[in-house]
Amino acid sequence: MSLDIEHIRQDFPILKRELRPGVKLVYLDSTATAQKPASVIEAMDSFYRLSNANIHRGVHTLAEESTALYEQAREKIARFINAASPRQVIYTRNTTESLNLVAYTWARANLKPGDLVILTEMEHHSNLVPWHMLAAERGIRLEFIPVAENGLLDLDAYKKLLELGPKLVSFTHMSNVLGTINPAKEIIALAHAAGAVTMLDGAQSVPHFAVDVKALDVDFMAFSAHKMLGPTGIGALYGKTALLEAMPPFLGGGDMIKEVKLRSFRANDLPYKFEAGTPAIAEAVGFGAAVDYLNSVGMDNVAAHEHEITEYALERLEEIPGVKLFGPEAKFKGGVAAFTLDCAHPHDVAQILDGDGVAVRAGHHCAQPLHEKFGIPATSRASFYLYSTKEEVDRLVDGIYKVKKIFS
Amino acid sequence: MDDLYREVIIEHYKNPAYRGHLDPHDYSFEDSNPLCGDHIEITLQISADGAVSDARFDGHGCAISQASADLLIESIIGKPLEDVRHLTKQDVLDLLGIELGPVRLKCALLSLKVLKAGVYGLGEASDSLVE
Ligand SMILES: Cc1ncc(COP(=O)(O)O)c(C=O)c1O
């Protein structure tokens, strides 16, 4: 089934915006954050208008309602990734906090000086810096699965690294720069066979194709609502129950406790053990509404549409003299096209495109080591989602020709 | 937008007059804009009377960062070091002759930040130097 894109676009109020008179928005930056359908905006609005109260405290009607809405959203999210239980879904602020939660709790309880953590060369800074910090504090060692020139991970090198006996393999499901979709199931199975725990950065995969934590057999997975049509300020960490149960808590405070004495506390059950303080309640409701929206479209349809747009975009961009694309061929790739243009810096490309309403990102996209590997300080990046169209790709291409004219 | 890419900016970007590296030099400093990886190095020679006798910049980055570096270097040659210490954000914007949003402002001010960190002998170029 192909998507009725015009119908879908009607659901996203911001896509109707004219940036300046006569200049319609072409939003090609969904990898940074996705736009929100009216149903998500309305769910949050309605929460504040009708149901707002703090959760898990008080028995009045609003407290009951808001607690139910908060927990229903968790159930939706758990089903969306096929988690066995909603208790395995911990609300966090975003992918970054989810990854840090594991680095602070599981890793500090389980890693000793000299223990090895395997990452990849294509990680977002959020799956690098927490480990740098732990390396400085604990003396853990880090090794990196190399990225080959074609944008794919070198799995032979990975198998060699596994012989070093890693304690953890933490890697991105999909690169936010190259678009590479990594063979997560294989990487996880190999890690388990070597006795390592696994963590998946699902920031770019969960929004764009069906991700099944049971089928992947992954131990931890991090993702953000704002990249999957939901609000900012909320994300999730999925974990296997036995691991989560054995981990020390993260932040201390209200809600994460069963009992507090003057000099001690007992931690709460999952998932509350990791959710200290008043959480982002309206955002959780919005997160649930985003999952409902994606389910109503169907993740396989989302993925198929993005694939079609990406193929078209790569084809059109390749035609432009002076454009160099990064990342693998379309069949290994999600909806991301990172490129350089020989005559102009990515910042200037993005600025001139913006003049025509085309929003792309320029910079190192929080993946500086990856850019260094390819010997470039920055790229321009166009990225696609379920609402992206071929006409928008055409506007991008027209804009790049305009840049060439200004800089030639 | 088209304003931003005024001919003078494109011209200074494509054919900078003061790109290079002075050796020997009395001051040198370099820094990057973490947002986009723009990089600027500035070297200065100072005459006996405390004026900038020669200056060069090197580096890479967007048209705004590189053109503003070229314009800035041009403007300080022959100036007393004391005046260079007191250059402001507005001086650079006047040289560029364009309005900039908060993101591109960082590109435009990178060279001034580097220059001031250098002449003040600071270990690090901080944003407070150009506020
Ligand atoms: C692959 C990847 N990992 C992690 C993140 C961090 O996500 P957040 O900023 O929502 O924590 C991003 C977002 O840019 C990403 O693309």
Question: How do the strands and helices of this protein lay out in sequence?
Answer:
The complex is a heterodimer of chains A (408) and B (131).
Chain A (H helix, E strand, L loop, with lengths): L4 H6 L7 E3 L2 E2 L1 E2 L10 H14 L9 H20 L8 E4 L2 H10 L1 H5 L5 E5 L8 H10 L2 E5 L9 H8 L5 E5 L11 H10 L3 E5 L11 H4 L3 E5 L10 E5 L1 H6 L10 E5 L2 E4 L13 H17 L1 H20 L4 E4 L9 E6 L4 H10 L2 E2 L1 E3 L4 H6 L5 E5 L6 H18 L1
Parallel strand pairs in A: 3-15, 5-6, 5-7, 7-8, 8-9
Antiparallel strand pairs in A: 1-2, 4-10, 9-10, 11-12, 13-14, 14-17, 16-17
Helix pairs in contact in A: 2-11, 3-11, 12-15, 13-15
Chain B lengths: L6 H8 L12 E6 L6 E8 L5 E9 L2 H14 L4 H5 L3 H8 L5 H18 L12
Antiparallel strand pairs in B: 1-2, 2-3
The structure holds pyridoxal-5'-phosphate.
Pyridoxal-5'-phosphate (PLP) binds next to helix 4 of chain A.
Task: Please describe what this structure looks like.
The complex is a heterodimer of chains A (408) and B (131). In chain A, the strands form 5 sheets. A 7-stranded mixed beta sheet of chain A has the order 4-10-9-8-7-5-6, with helices on both faces. Chain A has a 4-stranded antiparallel beta sheet with strand order 13-14-17-16, covered by helices on one side. A two-stranded antiparallel sheet of chain A has the order 1-2. Chain A has 2 domains: 5-30 and 299-407, Aspartate Aminotransferase, domain 1; 41-296, Aspartate Aminotransferase, domain 2 (3-Layer(aba) Sandwich), CATH 3.40.640.10. Chain A has 15 helices and 17 strands. With 408 residues, chain A is an alpha/beta fold. In chain A, helix 6 links the parallel strand 5 and strand 6. In chain A, helix 12 (299-318) runs parallel beside helix 15 (390-407). Helices cover 40% and strands 17% of the residues of chain A. With 131 residues, chain B is of the alpha+beta class. Chain B has one domain: Sufe protein. Chain: A (Alpha-Beta Complex). Chain B contains 5 helices and 3 strands, in the order αβββαααα. A 3-stranded antiparallel beta sheet of chain B has the order 1-2-3, with helices on one face. The two termini of chain B are 24 Å apart. Chains A and B meet through helix 13 of A and helix 2 of B. The complex binds pyridoxal-5'-phosphate. The site of pyridoxal-5'-phosphate has 13 residues of chain A, from helix 4. Pyridoxal-5'-phosphate is lined by residues 94-96, 124, 126, 172, 176, 201, 203-204, 224, 235, 366 of chain A.
